[in-house]
Every structure is written in structure tokens, then in C-alpha cells.
Amino acid sequence: IYVFVSEIFPYYLLVHPIFQLLQGSYSFFNCSNLWVSACLCCFYCIKIANFRNSIFIYLKVNIDRMVPWLLLGSVMFSLIIGILVYSTIDKAVCKNLNFTGPEELWKATIGLEEQFFPLVFLIGFVFAASFLLVIFAAVFLLFSLWRHKCKMQTNSMNSLSMDAHIRAMKSILSFFIMYTINFIFLILTLVYSMKYQSHVLFLGYSIQHAFPGVHSLILILSNPKLEKTLLRI
């Protein structure tokens, strides 16, 4: 919506509070997307991986009851980030009311305001925290799957079970690589946000917009039943 409005009706962004709402909504959906993906990766790790640690066993037993609260917490946390972005941009715009176009509006919001840097630091910390969560979950899950695969090879287990484990490892590894690329471009977007219409900024937004769809396709194609349903559709 933001790209459509900025390209087709750029001066519509000057109407208060359209620009603030779009930026706040973008931050909310972007943050919730990251944290829900991280929660999903942790859910896979706890459900599939096998470790004899007492804390891990407790999480495995109670993970089904924890999932709704994790999702609710992710949405509420993302909502707080969206409100902070809206408030910060609104203050920056109100300080600079003498702009005549979208470029000046953008520069007004990304000027070196005192309240802007704590927000950038907070968003960067949120991105880094979710990324670390995904790293630990993916590494533990890949290690568990690889160890179990080696045991099955020594015990001459059937090939179908082996194929399922290899497919799960490929799915987690591809998601981890994709999440890493998305995280790098999120940080680059924050770094280059001081430049209006930067090529790096455009590339960063493109990667971020592609991430949810590609992640969904990986989940569908890694599940035979979902893949058959997709082909039927």
C-alpha cells in the first residue's frame, strides 16, 4: 500500500496521519513476521529434537500450551514497536511542517532527531534477538536430526524414515539461510535509511517483501501433503 500510494498518489502522504500510519503498520507487520517465524523455528526444534536435558523435556511437554501465548506475545510486542515508530515519525514531521513533497517529508522523518536513534537501536536489538533465537533453534535441530540420521544408518532403518529426516534438515537449513539473508538486509535498511531512494534501501525492502512468501513456499514444498494440495489448486 505504501509503495502504491507513494508512486501513484505521492502527495496523499502529506495528509496527516497517512504517512505515520503506513510506517507504523509496516514496522508492526515486519516485526511480527520476524518473531512469528522465530517462534515457529523454536517450535520445530522443541517438537522434533531429542535431548535429555530436564529443561528441554519440560518445554517439549508444555510447548503446545505455550504456542498461543508466544504468538500473542509476538503480536503485542510488535504492536508496541509499531506505536513507537508512529509516535517518533509524528514528532519528527510536526517539527518540520514546511515541506512541499514526499522527499522532503521523508527527510523530515529521518533527520538527525534525538528520539530517532534510540528507536533505531531498539529495532536493531529486536531484529538481533529474533535472529539469535533462530540460530540456536536451527543449530540444535540440525544437530539432533543429523545425530538421529547417523543412528538410523548404523541400525539399517528404512529409507522412508531417512528421507523424511533429510527433507526436514534441508527445510530447516534453507529457512536458516533465507532468514540470515533477510536479517542482513534488515540491518542494511536501518543503516542506509538516511539516504532517500538509496539502491541498497530498495534492494533491502525487496528482500523483506519476498521473505514471507518464500518462507511459506518452503513450508509447503517440504510437506508432501501440502505439496499435493498446492498442485491440485
Describe this structure in words.
- The protein has 233 residues and is mostly helical.
- Helix 2 (18-48) packs antiparallel against helix 3 and helix 6 (159-191) runs antiparallel to helix 7 (199-221).
- 82% of the residues lie in helices and 0% in strands.
- The protein contains eight helices and no strands.
- It has helices at residues 2-8, 18-48, 54-95, 102-109, 116-154, 159-191, 199-221, 224-232.
- It folds into two domains: 15-134, no CATH class; 157-232.
Key descriptive features of the protein:
mainly alpha; 233 residues; 8 helices; 2 domains
Topology:
Elements (H helix, E strand, L loop, with lengths): L1 H7 L9 H31 L5 H42 L6 H8 L6 H39 L4 H33 L7 H23 L2 H9 L1
Catalogue the unreliable spans. none
What class would the helix/strand composition place it in?
mainly alpha
Radius of gyration, in angstroms, nearest whole number: 21 Å
How would you describe the shape? elongated
Task: Give me the number of helical elements.
Answer: 8
- Report the average pLDDT across residues: 78
Count of β-strands: 0
Largest sheet: none
Percent of residues in β-strands: under 5%
How many structural domains in the coordinates? 2
Please report the distance between the alpha carbons of the first and last residues. Answer: 27 Å
Give a short overview.
The protein has 233 residues and is mainly α. It is 82% helix and 0% strand.
